[in-house]
User: Fold this.
Amino acid sequence: MSGRPTTSPAPARFDAAITGVGMVTAAGVGVEQSWERIRAGAGTAASEVPALAGLPADFACAVTDFDPSALIERKQVWRLDRSSQLGMVAAHEAVADSGLDRDSWDATRVGVILGNGIGGAATWEKQHSVLLEKGPRRVSPLLVPMLSPNMCAGYVSMMLGALGPSLVTATACASGTTAVGMARELLRSGVCDVVITGGTEAPLVPSLISGFSQMRALADRRDDLTATSRPFDADRSGFVAAEGAAVLVLERAEDARARGARIRAMVSGYGASADAHHATAPDPNGRGAELALRAALRDAGVGPDEVDHVNAHGTATMLNDATEARTIRRVLGERPAVTSVKGVVGHSLAAAGAIEAVVTALTLEEGHIPPTANLESLDPELELDMVFKAGRDVRAEVAVSNSFGFGGQNAVLLFTAA
Assistant:
């Protein structure tokens, strides 16, 4: 044996139809509100967060005017960590948007795969304080089911009566993208007919935000909170932490067409890789990110010169933006129009890739690429066709969405227009 890696031939292209979307972000509760602000590039939806008072970073992109009891029984709401609440509301909207009849579907063939990186962070922090202040007998018996990362998918499956596989992916900030990629595989393999997929995260608690601050990963601009998240800008200083959730309903394309469903876009390719480089810093050469991007292209049977648009990971950190820009340029050239939505909604960690998957689907459906908010002066080292200042009307046919996470986790989805 030569020891050289071999490349397997790509399987026949498989299109998973996106027939429903749901979203809860700092830009708004529901797809319509969130998309309107993202589409307008209306600035960072950041505000001071009382729970973070006194910290170096006391602001974040928090979801406001959120009342889960409108969709979840009030007696159950207090049993759920906020991350599960956000995911359940987004899932409810996505299933309603899909037009699927939950009373007539085969529940044994409906799966739920959500990305979640932190689990019930608020529950953990609150109950740890109870333990220290009041003793072990006052710790809630609901602690474990509220903080376990798998419970966001578990509760969605309970809400929907979905009896198929119920899984949570944890690939840090790539978790939501990984979940969508795995959901497509459940359809391709024939295990499921419908998969509810996406990501949810509620990380706005003092210990986590303090940890990110100590890493110097967070934006430090406080003079104007609407301008604090600045992806790809020469003056960027870090990401703005966020909470949020997004959920997509995926079906086989032929099934969706047969029932006359509205198809927003297709998930036609997926690629994943590891940097094998560093716990938190990306490989500066972008080798792992390139592997994932090329794998997604190969999976979809799409050439690099066919990609019209990139929804970038675009965290507004110095290293990540630079590495991603070099990778896009090296693999896709100068043709695709690039944007990042984190200038508006901040960085919601495991939910980020799911939010960006919904946005990419809407971009293809509407033929409009939203601008990168707060990008005033493109870093001269980043040679990309960035969409900024204003959105761009483009009838894009092929788009990719990148996600990269701690641990060198890389995941890329390729979308095609319906």
User: Anything to note?
Assistant: The CA atoms of residues 109 and 239 lie 39 Å apart.
